[in-house]
Amino acid sequence: MNKSFKVVFSKARSALMVVNEATSSIQAKGTKTVIAVAAAMVAGGAMAGNGVTISPNMDMVTPSGTDKATHAAVVARPSVEQSIFYNGLSFGTAAKVEGVKLSYDYQAPKKDEHGQDIAQPNVLSLVGGTLSGFDVAVATTNGDAGFQVGLGGSVFEAIAAPNSSTGATNNLNVLVDGVTFADNHATARGGVGFISGVADFKIQNSIHTGNKVDADGGVYQIGNQSTGTITGSTFSGNSAKKSGGALRVSKSTVTIDKSVFDGNTAKVAGGAITVDNNSELTVNNSVFTNNVVGEGKAGHGGAVFVSGTSQVNVTSSEFTGNKAGHGGAFYIQGQAATFTDTVFTNNEAYEYGGALRVNTGSVTFEVTKGDVAYTGNKAGTATDSVAGQRYNGKTGGFLYLQSAAGASGKSGTATFNVADGATLTIGKDATADSIASYSKTNAVSTITKTGAGDLVVNGDMSAFVGDLTVSFGSMTIAGGIGEYDLAVQEAVNAAKDSGTVSATSVGTNVTVEAPATLTVGNLNVTNALSVTANGDFTAGNITVTKGTYKDLKVATEEKAAADHSTTGAATITVADAKTAKVGDITVDAGTFEKLGAGSLTAGNAAVNSGTMTVSSGSLSVKDISVGTSGTATVAADTKLEVTGTITGEKQKLGVTGTLATTLGNVVDYADGKATTKQNAVVKFETNSSFEVTDEGLQYTTTQWNSIKRAAGSTNLKIANGTLVAADAKTPLTLADVNAVQGYAGAADIVETAKAGTYTNDTLATPTTIGKLTVNAKDANTKLTSVTLRGTEQNKFTLRGNAKGEVLAVPTDVKAIDIGYVYFGEKAADHGVVANGLTVSNKAGVDAGSFDFTGDVELGALFTVNKGATARFLGDVTEKAAPAGDSRSVTDADKAIANNGTVVIGTVPAADATDKTLQINVTTETGNGGLTVFGAKHEAAALQYKAAAADNNVIYVGEQTTLNKSQQFGALDTTATAPENVVAIDLDSVAANGYTAKSGAILKAATDVTITDSATNNPRFSVDLLNLNSKVLTIAETGATLNLGTAFAEGTAVKLGNAFYNDGTVAADGTFAVVTDEEAVLDVETSGLHTAGAVVQAVRSYEKPTNGIAAIVYNNWEAWDQEYKKSFFEQAKAAGLLADDVTLETFNTKTSFAAGKQAAFLQLGEQIDNAQWTAITNAEHAATNMAVLGGAFTTTLDVNDQVTAVLNRRMSLANLNVSRNEAGVTPWVDVFGTMNEGKRLFGNGMGYEADIYGAVLGFDYTATCGSILGLAINVGTSDGNSTGNGQKVDNDQDFYGVSAYASRQFGSFNTKLDLGYLVTKNDLKTASSYFGATSEKLDAKVFTVGLGAEFLASAGAVNVVPHAGIRLTTIDMDESNFGADYDKMTVYQLPLGVTFSGSFDAAGWQVAPQFDLSVVPTFGDKDAVATYAGNVKDTTRVVDTNPVQATLGVSAQNGAWTFGLNYGLTAGGDDRMNNSLNANVRYTF
Hints:
Layout: E1 5-10, E2 15-20, E3 25-28, H1 31-42, E4 47-48, E5 51-53, E6 58-60, E7 67-68, E8 74-77, E9 82-85, E10 89-90, E11 96-98, E12 100-105, E13 110-111, E14 117-118, E15 122-127, E16 130-132, E17 135-136, E18 141-142, E19 148-149, E20 156-159, E21 172-177, E22 180-182, E23 185-186, E24 193-196, E25 200-204, E26 207-209, E27 212-213, E28 220-223, E29 227-231, E30 234-236, E31 239-240, E32 247-250, E33 253-257, E34 260-262, E35 265-266, E36 273-276, E37 280-284, E38 287-289, E39 292-293, E40 304-306, E41 311-315, E42 318-320, E43 323-326, E44 330-333, E45 336-340, E46 343-345, E47 348-352, E48 356-359, E49 362-367, E50 371-374, E51 378-379, H2 386-390, E52 399-402, E53 413-418, E54 423-426, E55 435-438, E56 446-450, E57 454-457, E58 467-470, E59 474-477, H3 486-494, E60 508-512, E61 517-520, E62 523-525, E63 528-533, E64 536-538, E65 542-544, E66 546-549, E67 564-567, E68 569-574, E69 579-581, E70 585-587, E71 591-595, E72 599-601, E73 605-614, E74 618-621, E75 624-634, E76 639-642, E77 646-648, ...
Parallel strand pairs: 7-10, 8-20, 15-21, 16-22, 17-23, 20-24, 21-25, 22-26, 23-27, 24-28, 25-29, 26-30, 27-31, 28-32, 29-33, 30-34, 31-35, 32-36, 33-37, 34-38, 35-39, 36-40, 37-41, 38-42, 40-44, 41-45, 42-46, 43-47, 44-48, 45-49, 47-51, 48-52, 49-53, 50-54, 52-55, 53-56, 54-57, 56-58, 57-59, 58-60, ...
Antiparallel strand pairs: 1-2, 2-3, 4-5, 5-9, 6-12, 8-9, 11-16, 12-15, 13-14, 18-19, 66-67, 80-81, 116-117, 117-120, 118-119, 121-122, 121-139, 122-123, 123-124, 124-125, 125-126, 126-128, 127-128, 128-130, 128-131, 129-135, 130-134, 131-133, 132-133, 133-137, 135-136, 137-138, 138-139
Helix pairs in contact: 9-10, 10-11
């Protein structure tokens, strides 16, 4: 750039100064230099000593000086207004410049509103060409301009604010575009360039190969708060003697996109890139291959080294074949890195972390879609690997997490976030891709699995010791975890001269949160391993044993330390209501403990040495054995279930809680008598329980007692048996049940009242029976009341017997009073309770399914457990508090607490004024429960609930009166996003007589509401199912639905349909049904055939009756969500999304990243077009199958074949037709054709069909030569659509009848035929959007043809020109899917000529012939389908001018004639028909 300078003398600086008059800046110069520069300026040149001031767009030339350069060839420093290309220095004999444009664009500072200077961009650019062989031994010197040069780089040095920590204050920009840098070398700060304090640099579309530096940054060193991008560039074979084989990024922000780093090397760190000093590196869509640090045996980070509070984010990139001593691809020193949709393959570390070593830092792996695999990564496998030798090769083939101990220890952490539907797989097997960690107290390595997708680890995790948490989705570990502790091994290795080792593992803690899933392989537990299963946990075999650590670091003349042993301690804690599953459990040393209120199911258990304890909850095993040195304990209030055998040493299995197993494992039992088992393994302690699990065991009280005595348990329950009387006749009583500690299975029990009332004796123990019969005292004493009572501790359970009978009492007992009485013990239990019930204290249904057909009066809480069903088919009401009852009984106390399925609702009497279903009691629906108002709606409610299994649901199928408030209880905390929902089926409500004039759907008094019991607020939504106009009040202003004031104002209402807006309940209990006009407009302009039907349905507040329209109506919103999800995933993968955008917050118009709007919107349009094309094609196929399946065209083809047969029979060209002898001729003509018109329908669509048929005729030849005939035809065809669009298949059958006649007048012949044809079309299509669609349509055809021909002879050849006209009508049935087809009338004018002849051969008259015709066609050549809303679809189905050629031969001998013809029809739109006809005639 040209500038004005003047030379002045500065007294303050005692030097001559060059003053830039444009800026009045003063710079101190050496006297000689100033004079030289000034002289050059005065002479009009741009020279500055050994260089030139860089001007815009100048050609860069190869430097030609002799003085060896000690700094870069190009220097730009706006802080001292310097931009020089030193073309007068020597940069080595190999230095060469080819085709490079060099520019420096300077802009003077501008003043802001306060008069302060604001720096403007100063742009240094190198564009195009090649720079190679530059060699600089950097030496910090005073350059020609009098300031320090030689800070770094061989080609360029761009420094905006040297030695400043304040950032790019001088606003220097750098552009490198399309340049090749090859074989350049510098001794410091970047083999090619040094970028410092640069506000915005862009390195794009450039190649960097073979460049070297003796320090850091084989190509570039970028520092001092520089910011910029590297795009579309290649870095290969570059090297650094220290760090950053290609780049060193220090205290700067760099983004790399669509670039390749291959074969770069460094000696210390970062084979390709080093990132340090609080930098930020972002890498997108780039590839790092075969980068190496420390020759693959030393150094850190084969591809990238990260340190110094830096951040790295990598997306959609690949790291393959990189090598280092530590961290084959990445070494992260105390910092954070995130890898999104990035692949690590075949990276290798000589010591630790084949792909990554995380040294007290954190790393996050994110997979947003599809399947991603990390494979072939290895560490510590070389025979001379120090770490491999010292730690048995367990140094993290894929990932090594290093934690630092101390009072404030730092941990290495890894997070795997896998999105829903995606899978991340680490390793193919245990030979590579292992994960290892180093953990100590206060510095525990952690791994966390998040996201709803799947994480599969096939690599070895046995050396991961620390904390593993699976918080969402699923994780599968093929092997074990936590078996080998590197910290313990380190302590053993550090021991000197046989010294003892004191080392304790921090152990491994595994947590599975609900609703996540963790599956692991076999677990070899040699240290502490704790599993907490709040979610789903599954493991292979578990072996608890000792671990042995040998001294693997023995120095010269040192004795190895003694082997150090660790002992395993496994604890599995299972949350309440959860079940974890493992394989066999073997305890060879140490301890195994089951904790938590939930259940653990295992294979076999063997306690050879050490202990196994069930401390809480339950454990179920198949076989169990306890060795001499082993002990198994079942603690109080816990349960051990053994489904197989119990073996081992005597009394080694101690039971204080409950043991559930078969008789033979505990006692010897024969002939109904039990005896003590010799050397019994089981020892029952005080208060222990024995639960006998033998199926179908019937037992008497005597037998029960013998079993209890022989077992030695305090309590005995024969869980799957039934108590019977000794004589099998005497009825059992509750006293008999009490004698067996209250459990009689499903036994029938008979009680006899002692007076006119009956109350069972106080239960001394929980009591379970099948059916209870209560008889009157005698015939003279009427039994008027029955009371059944359990207690809080001793429940009274009625299971029902095999017949489903539960209770039997005299009819004089109107209601049975119950308290602490429960129905059902097992899921298969069932029964009908026909008696009325008065619930005076707690009661419920624990399991199974029970119908209560009598009235139920609630004076206390009635609970229905999860999985259980209670149907209240009578009236259910609240019981008034008895006089003198001091209890405070609220509605909640007199409610039904429903965690399962409850059917409730009183059907009014025939003479009742209010005919609506009555709900007379409060229900509380929680924990995934379903409450159904009205028994006849149960099936529909269950179907709805199946799709919303986790929700709490109240289902309404008819108008209902709520006389009591309804509540929602607790949500199922183990479920994913459960909700409280009132579902109202409006179709069902209407079908049950409700109209808009009937009032509220849920009628309720002023104080009756529906609330969430936890907050007493309406924290629920209303799902309106199957909108029906009959239930709406429709006015010009819109439609409203009267839900009722039980719904609080503001309650959310959802219609689940794109064409109506969701909303809220108004203060008066109404809901305004508001049409979404935007959605209606979208469907109106969609081009769908069913658009009119959908709009009509929406406007009329009804569902479409047309099945295809109904799919559009129901799925419009789902299709939009499908588009949104696809757009989000593809935009994220392409890097087009703004930061922190999730699928939930994604906006298809505005969620683009800065500078990505055009690409973002273009991608959205592409996805939208692709989806909508698929939907449109599928919908058009489903609604216009008759056209696209070729029903019209094939019908016309069949008609053409039949009329062609008749024409051959009547034509003069057929020389074997008898015309001079009167008589009757039967004949048959069989034909087969292959027809296609691949582009007939337009838009690349057409049809093809194979037709097979036969025509059977009889004709009479009169003495005058006239022919009169009648023919019938029958056949079939197999056709389908072709080309673009959705495929449609058509299986067609046809039949018809024809009459024909011909009359010859000399050489002139006339022909006439009439025909009626029916084709029956079986049409089918299928798509992912509309499923399988089929229908049967008939086409009715009437045809009449008139023709004339003339016979002319030319020697032995007859020439017969012919012409005709044919009218054909096609009347297609109306489609079930909305298409009303116009009747078609087609006119054909066949014109042609036939050549024929005849000759005799061996007594046969042989007549060959050839015909060539053109068939101009007029009339209705388009099939017009009209749909609702006057939507029309017009498709060309008839050719205009097909050309037909027929070659045939017939042979006659006596009365028999045989013929064979081949026809070819060709036309536009890829029309091609091939036909073959065979015929035979016999003349009487």
